Amino acid sequence: MGFADKKNIIRNNTPCIGHSLILTKPLGVGLVMAADRVDEANAAAVQSAIDSMRRLNRYAAEKMRGFAVSACTDVTGFGFLCHLLEMCGESVSAEIWPEEVPYIPDAAEYAGAFLITASGLRNRNFFSDSGAVKDLPFASQELFFDPQTSGGLLICVDSGQAPALLARIQEDDPLARMIGRILPRQTDRIVFR
Known about the structure:
This protein has helices at about 30-35, 45-55, 60-65, 80-90, 105-110, 120-125, 140-145, 160-170; strands at about 20-25, 70-75, 90-95, 155, 175-185, 190.
C-alpha cells in the first residue's frame, strides 16, 4: 500500500512513435522450468532462470528516472509478445529485431524439443494474426510466447536517450538489450525485421 504521484505514473499503453524498446531480462524462464519439471534441464540453465527470477525490476525502474520513457510494462505470464500487444494497443505497431531479444540459451533448445507450456500455447492463440510470427524459427516463437515469472521490464524510451538508458541498466542487468522500436500503425501490429 502506498501513494502514487499521478503526474509521474508511467503507463503500459502509451508508447510514442519512434521510441526505442528495451528489454531488461532474458526470456525463457518458463521453458527452462518446464524442462526442469521433466528432468531435462541442465543445472546451469535452471540457475540462470532462478537468478533472473530473483533479480528485482526495481533497479531498472529506478534508472528510468530522468529519461523520456513513454510506456513500460513487466513481461510476465502473457509472454513478451502479448505484453507488447497490450503496449501497442490499436494506435501503433512495434518493430522487433528477433536477433537482439535476449534469452536463456538452453531455453531455445528446450523449445525446439517441444518442452513447452500450456500458458505459452494460450499466449500463441491470443496473439493469433497480430504479426507474422510464423515466419520466425519455432524456438524463437516459443521464446516470445513463453510465460515469465518475474520477467524483465519492457521499456519504451526516446530513441535519442535509449543508448544512455540501456548503458545504465546494463550496469546491473548486463543482458538487457535494445530490441526494436515503435512504428505508426501497420497492417500487422507486430513487425519482425
